[in-house]
Amino acid sequence: MSTLTLENLSRCFQGLIPCALATTSESGVPNITYLSQILYVDQRHVGLSRQFFNKTRQNLEQNPFACIQVHDALSYEVYRLNVRYERSETSGPLFEEQAERLEAIAAHTGMSGVFRLQAIDICEVLEIEYVEGFLLPAESSALPAEFGRGPLTELRALQLVSERINRARELDELLTSTLAAFAELLDLPHSMVLLPDESEQRLVTIASHGYGASGVGAEVRFGDGLIGLAAANRRLVRISGLRNELRYSLAARERLREVEGELGQRSEISLPGLSHAESQLALPLLVGGELVGVLSFESESGVAFQTWHEAFLQLLANQLASGIVRLRDERGPEVEVTRIASPPEAAPPNPNRERRKRRFSFYKNDDCIFLDGEYLVRNVPARILWKLLGQHVAQGRVEFNNRELRLDPTLGLPPVRTNLESRLVLLRKRLAEKCPDLQLVPGERGRFRLLAQCEVELTEHDHA
User: Domains of the chain by range and CATH?
Assistant: First the structure.
């Protein structure tokens, strides 16, 4: 076998198969413990994530030499690393990255604050040994197709994704086409984009791909879970080998939904997610230091995301962030407000279709709208919809423009970056899912129409 290096063993550091760590005391008494993950530090060093194993720590202080057994997550081949303990780190990039990983897992399982990282023990790798005879001879050494793609595949994907980003003329088109490209070109079928709301303390799902339910409007607080950590720390976060931790978390979340569902109305939308996710990657979308949003991927494969994905997908994420800012900050021409008494002739009501009555209730205290007793939308999108519906019912108005919304102080849009387009995209998608009888149809730049194929009844409440 050719000379082994730590770079050759990158799949051994994914956290998919526990590693065995053997140490001895000063008097030669052995101790073996299992670690969920060994960290790659550089070409000559690995890191041991220290949370609980006090005996191992005592042994390393008395005798710095140890042996680590690691497994290739794809081929299941086994290697031994003969190492020497050098130092412990309790701060710095490596420590912070691993602390974020532990916190993300804890957030998934409802155990925040329990899995606290104490230190990263840095060890020099003195020798790497391949363990002969651990596996029976394989019939074929060929790797699955997804691991055989060369750089030309990625370059082609980069070109096509970039073209879609540059070609998009509307924010919805940009997000939809880009997420579809990730699925078609990079075999990443489950993804979503979340943008900050006006409080800049929460993210709101505005687009998703590959899930049964779109989850548009679902919220994540900064710092909560993998996505929230990526937003709060403005750093890429990747987890592999979630297995039982995620299953437990999702089961608990489903139970919570059942209980809360019995308690009455809930002003919440469930975040899309795979019930058997094994790995997740969340990338902050940054432009000039500003957090534009978060791009998230999930996979049922524990080896879906490797080290090279981090750099490659961050490159695409940077382009996506620039595209979002371009379309978000573009403003249409200054147009006058137009009022007409009836819907346009291009979309007349269907005379053979009975017009259904839809009841919209706005709760001022919670700043949210319920449709026929079911939660629809909250905050700025809710205030925008309430304004449009109010003028539609009172004045028969169906045409509106972006400028009047930006200038309306009652909507609470930020004075500089209003993110109005993202709010309208979210509102259009929520109506398409929950009330297809009511549509927001984009027109020429800066204009849109409210087309109603239903009777609208409005009720405003001070309290829920």
Answer: 6-92+117-130 (2.30.110.10), 150-329 (3.30.450.40), 356-461 (1.10.10)
